[in-house]
Amino acid sequence: GENVEQHPSTLSVQEGDSAVIKCTYSDSASNYFPWYKQELGKGPQLIIDIRSNVGEKKDQRIAVTLNKTAKHFSLHITETQPEDSAVYFCAATYAGGTSYGKLTFGQGTILTVHP
Amino acid sequence: KAGVTQTPRYLIKTRGQQVTLSCSPISGHRSVSWYQQTPGQGLQFLFEYFSETQRNKGNFPGRFSGRQFSNSRSEMNVSTLELGDSALYLCASSLNSYMGTQYFGPGTRLTVL
């Protein structure tokens, strides 16, 4: 089955700096890669996603890149703000196949943005 | 649109008891997936339902079960609770799970004493 590894487990940055979180996946059939942000006491919130037919996607200060050959994808947050502090999860799945609703998650990255 | 709702938000049970958790998906969404989140194991897939049928199941014992109703609302049940079942149980809804995009509810925090 799919296995997703996420690094780093913790990341501390100063406000205004950039933050990068990286994930690698094992199943070359995976074609959908979402990123979630989870704040304390809340469920994961989808912040951006990318499909395997696209190499990069951007939404304001957030961007995701995908390297299918190397089987890794990354989340980039620019101009970080204290409210970006949260746990971030990457995930992978084979959408359209027999994965049927199963996202495989990385272990999470605790991002702390210091004012 | 209203988001995914889960009830109850918090639950305390003792070992050996059983528990039922409820999830109402986003209006129009027909697929509901359930996940268990613990500090040690992270987010793990339990099962997925679509049109009242379980289409996929994760690697959990048979004590974990679920169902989906004709209005897409879903319930999961855990029987003979163990201490290790203490976790945040999350449900996520998707239009049809074919495209992959899932939206999560706030979760039910289950504590087993």
Give a verbal description of the structure.
The complex is a heterodimer of chains A (115) and B (113). Chain A is built from no helices and 11 strands. With 115 residues, chain A is mainly β. In chain A, strands 2, 4, 5, 9, 10 and 11 form a 6-stranded mixed beta sheet that branches. A 5-stranded antiparallel beta sheet of chain A has the order 1-3-8-7-6, with no helix packed on it. In chain A, strand 7 and strand 8 (72-77) form a beta hairpin. The radius of gyration of chain A is 14 Å and the shape is globular. In chain A, 38% of the residues are buried. With 113 residues, chain B is mainly beta. In chain B, the strands form 2 sheets. In chain B, strands 2, 4, 5, 6, 9, 10 and 11 form a 7-stranded mixed beta sheet that branches. In chain B, strands 1-3-8-7 form a 4-stranded antiparallel beta sheet, with no helix packed on it. In chain B, a hairpin with an 8-residue loop joins strand 9 (87-94) and strand 10 (103-104). The interface between A and B is medium-sized, with 26 and 28 residues.
